[in-house]
Amino acid sequence: MSRRTLKLGAVLLGVGGPGQHNTWLDPEIPANASVDVNWYIARAKEAEAAKFDLVFIVDSQFITRNSPNHYLSRLEPLTLLSAIAVHTGNIGLVGTLTTSYNEPFNVARRLYSLDHISGGRAGWNVVTSGDAGTAGNYSRDEHFDYPTRYGRALEHVQVVRGLWDSYEADAFPRDKESGVFLDPEKQHALNHRGEYFSVVGPLNLERSPQGQPVIFQAGDSEEGRDLGASVGEVIFTHAANLAQAKAFRAELRERAAAKGRDPEGLLTLPGIQLVIADTDEEARSKEDARLGTKSFDRALKELGRPFGWHDFTRYDLDAPFPEIGDAGERSFRTQANSIKKLARDNGFTLRQVVQHLIDAARSPFVGSPETVADTIQHWFSEGGFDGINVTVNAPSEFALFTDRVLPILRERGVVRSEYESDTLRGNLGLPVPANRHTDARHPAPALAP
Amino acid sequence: MSRRTLKLGAVLLGVGGPGQHNTWLDPEIPANASVDVNWYIARAKEAEAAKFDLVFIVDSQFITRNSPNHYLSRLEPLTLLSAIAVHTGNIGLVGTLTTSYNEPFNVARRLYSLDHISGGRAGWNVVTSGDAGTAGNYSRDEHFDYPTRYGRALEHVQVVRGLWDSYEADAFPRDKESGVFLDPEKQHALNHRGEYFSVVGPLNLERSPQGQPVIFQAGDSEEGRDLGASVGEVIFTHAANLAQAKAFRAELRERAAAKGRDPEGLLTLPGIQLVIADTDEEARSKEDARLGTKSFDRALKELGRPFGWHDFTRYDLDAPFPEIGDAGERSFRTQANSIKKLARDNGFTLRQVVQHLIDAARSPFVGSPETVADTIQHWFSEGGFDGINVTVNAPSEFALFTDRVLPILRERGVVRSEYESDTLRGNLGLPVPANRHTDARHPAPALAP
Ligand SMILES: Cc1cc2nc3c(=O)[nH]c(=O)nc-3n(C[C@H](O)[C@H](O)[C@H](O)COP(=O)(O)O)c2cc1C
Ligand SMILES: Cc1cc2nc3c(=O)[nH]c(=O)nc-3n(C[C@H](O)[C@H](O)[C@H](O)COP(=O)(O)O)c2cc1C
Question: PANTHER family annotated for this entry (chains A, B) (predicted)?
Fold first, then answer.
């Protein structure tokens, strides 16, 4: 096994960082990039040329007029990734699909099709849908409560993984001489009957190059961390500072170990915002300018999102942060609670909360190429993360990372110079889960239940 | 408007015709073609070179060990079509998605994403899932009964079309000068509350090149024909002989007219099996040889499919066709009933029924290139169909049609020589439905409700 190296993900058209609802104003980014397949293919090729492990596509299924601009109109992640798959050859393709509003049979099939089409490069970012309003688009009056949402998520992933084991690797002799297409002993029904799903199987798709596409997971609550520790292989998260990043990674590894898993089979990749310029000073001014494009009014509106798009514009900005009951209870609860706590602990007004959130959007990864390389290497060696998910918007900004930061990290042996495998799982150095049905004959470590 | 010409569809790896469960034995077809994206892309390019209007991907979500071989393991249609989209430029891309086990919001979004990715070439084959066993893969004890199945289908399509109208064509000024991304007056929620679905909307994807991807429909029962007449723009069907084909087309056009639709907005494209050789005699021997590969045992097993995979091997072959109660009632009921009627009317034994079905699999489109061209032209001019959906398996067989039959039909003006439009809708000569929200300002003919 080769020396542990930093994993690299590219979040294409990531929205969420400061001023990123305004990325469409960037002269380098076509205003309609979020619906332009060629824009995505071009970025994926650049990431592949830089030997990135994966591209990552986030998602949501609910919008309001105040949603970040690129969210108002964007391509469905798996449809997009299939198009990218046939114009790339090595880079991993990770798509977000919610367990709350998709059937496990359909999810299993679509991701497995992508794994076949891409020759083993598919990954699934398992989410439960943070926007409570999503329920209204799926014939439900209300979003699931947290225990149900995450209970369904765990069972959903288990069903999907079970369906992926429907066929043993050698189930299809397809011997034209003897006329034998299938070895029926190697086709396995699932016969799952659980609390939330009943799925007989088998899947109508043979074992794929990865066998099991890689499970990514994003969710921050107690329930979310438990799900990640149970079935996640890569955790997508945020990281405000090194101490927090270390604590998060250590906690997830401990939780996984407590479930009988090898913690090396769980990688933490926070999404990070890079701001790179020739000098540290220039980089800081660049970030100031970028933060400056985020107007207070816009931030006030977006504050509503974790609270189920609660309308904060109707309150007095200089009165104490409003009592809004349990708004957000079925939305991004963890984020909503931490904002409430921030207001309470500091006695903040609404204006102070919004201003605090704008200021807190500063990235720890700002500076010259040397500085950024140093910071990344430091966090990595201190156990802050196993890799980074870099937000990719303007190509020239991404090139500052690939052309000026990566060579430094390669020189230092932090990042590998070539793809090591044909599959995403292989490049990430993750163990290959055995097929549960082949297991008995060829024992191999299974993932935790 | 140009003269009416014959429309051309290519059903890639179509299974269903005589002996086609054995297509994998063909030396020209890779044994794993059904999971090989490159095989599909190559066939789609050939069809595009021959100026076909569309490729067509059938589907099912339930298999047994007796399912046709290529069904045991195949790629999910939309994932596959997205990969084909970015390696072709003109040909339409029609995928089968069931209304019984997919959420309308997800269907709307995936097809609309394909329409954006392909520049306006997406079509949806609306089915309700014929295999009753599909229910078991979607947490249901039983498949929906016919009225529910088709009631859901109609409402599902209406919701999807409503979501496709979420944004008016000019809803996104995306003016970098003024900073205006969206014109909120042109974003419309759906607020649908129906018998089967409640969907608030709007869709998170702007108006696509076609505005409304083309609706294909396949289903033969009273309920199925009613659905086709209500929302179908192209009907995929079978055609055993000219009289039956004419009657079917005439009936569908009448039904559509009775619903206030222009019957010219509804095209009938039966799936046909071509058997072409230098002479009529050689073609007939070729068909004999092909039918010969269909063993009686295999046909006996496959007889079970319309009856919900009822096991017919347990009956005496030479006793009268067994009384099997309502097996098939929630499966392919129309087909099951017509087989029961055949047995009853003729007093057939089980053996005679199976033998009859094997014999009935003969195609009307067998002969030399001249003969096949004559037959197609005759059926077309007699009003038997508006186009044909040709099953594409071995490339050399397909080439006999494109290289030897098509030139004759072109010479006679039956088939056009060039694409006439950038979109599938345009090539099929179908009217462009107006956006319901723009309608008031710019009146235009709407589709029937
Ligand atoms: C880093 C990160 C990325 C996320 N990405 C998505 C996403 O793309 N789509 C989505 O629906 N939810 C996403 N989520 C939301 C989670 O699925 C979850 O619903 C939300 O975080 C609320 O749950 P929690 O309280 O467990 O965090 C993300 C969450 C985190 C922490
Ligand atoms: C020509 C034709 C093609 C069909 N293709 C499919 C298909 O690809 N997938 C599917 O699930 N059902 C398919 N169906 C089945 C229909 O969706 C329907 O469920 C089935 O025919 C039983 O309904 P009916 O009695 O209305 O025909 C097809 C039916 C016909 C007539």
Answer: ALKANESULFONATE MONOOXYGENASE-RELATED (PTHR30011), C2H2 FINGER DOMAIN TRANSCRIPTION FACTOR (EUROFUNG)-RELATED (PTHR30011:SF16)
Residues present in chain B in total: 449
Taking CA atoms, what residue in B is nearest to A63?
A: B204
Domain count, chain A: 2
The label of the residue with tokens 């099951």 reads: B336
- Give a yes or no: residue A379 inside a domain: yes
Write down the pLDDT at residue B245.
96
ipTM attached to this prediction: 0.94
| Rounded Cα–Cα distance for residues B7 and B414 (Å) | 9
B71 contact partners, CB below 8 Å, separation of at least 6: A204, B15, B34, B60, B63
pLDDT digits over B357-377, tens only? 888 888 999 999 999 999 999
Q: Which amino acid is at B387?
A: G
Comparing CB atoms, the residue among A133, A199, A205 nearest residue B137 is: A199
Q: For B174-196, what is each residue's pLDDT tens digit?
A: 999 999 999 999 999 999 999 99
Alpha carbon distance A142, B198 (integer Å): 12
CA–CA min distance A53, chain B (Å): 21
The domain boundary, picked from A315, A331, A359, lies at A359
Closest ligand 1 atom to residue A149 Cα is: 19
B contact residues 336-395, partner A, Cβ 8 Å cutoff: none
Which of these, B97, B102, B151, lies nearest to B125 by C-alpha position? B97
Measured in degrees and rounded to the nearest 5, phi and psi for residue B339 equal: -70, -40
Which chain B residues contact residue A13 at CB under 8 A? none
pLDDT at residue number B217: 97
A96 annotated as ligand-binding: yes
Instruction: Give the tens place of pLDDT for each residue, A181-236.
Output: 999 999 999 999 999 999 999 999 999 999 999 999 997 899 999 999 999 999 99
Instruction: Report the nearest-CA residue for atom 23 of ligand 2.
Output: B219
Nearest 5 degrees, angle CA A426-CA A429-CA A430? 90
Q: Is B204 in contact with A62 (Cβ distance < 8 A)?
A: yes
- Please write the tens of the pLDDT for every residue from A310-343: 999 999 999 999 998 887 788 888 889 999 999 9
- Helix (H) / strand (E) element for A407: namely helix A406-411
A residues 327..346 contacting B (CB < 8 A): none
Q: Is B236 helix (H, G, I), strand (E, B) or coil?
A: strand
Task: Inform me whether the pLDDT recorded for B281 exceeds 60.
Answer: yes
Q: Which of A320, A342, A359 is the last residue of a domain?
A: A359
Taking CB atoms and an 8 Å limit, are B113 and A41 in contact across chains? no
Q: What is the pTM of this model?
A: 0.95
Kindly state whether residues A256 and A308 are assigned to the same domain: no
Answer whether A76 sits within 8 Å of B101, measured CB to CB. no
- Residues B77-102 as b/e (b if ≥16 CB within 10 A, e otherwise) read bbbbbbbbbbbbebbbbbbbbbbbbb
Residue ranges of E strands in A211-362: 214-217, 234-237, 267-272, 275-276
Residues B185 and B324 in one domain: no
CA distance B430 to B262: 11
Whether residues B391 and B351 share a domain: the answer is: no
| Residue A246 predicted with pLDDT over 50 | yes
Tell me, yes or no, if A86 comes closer than 8 A to chain B by beta carbon.
yes
The domain containing residue B309 runs over which residues?
295-359
Under DSSP, the state recorded for B296 is: H
> Does A68 lie at the interface with B, CB-CB under 8 angstroms?
no
Q: What is the pLDDT of residue B302?
A: 87
Q: What is the pLDDT of residue A449?
A: 42
Tell me if A271 CB under 6 Å of ligand 1: yes
Chain A interface, mutation test: which of B57, B75, B82, B111, most A Cβ atoms within 10 Å? B82
Is residue A75 within 8 angstroms of chain B, CB to CB?
yes
R_g over Cα of chain A: 22
Q: Whose CA is nearest to atom 8 of ligand 1?
A: A58
* Residues B155, B183 within the same domain: yes
> Which of A167, A181, A198 lies closest to B24 in CB terms?
A181
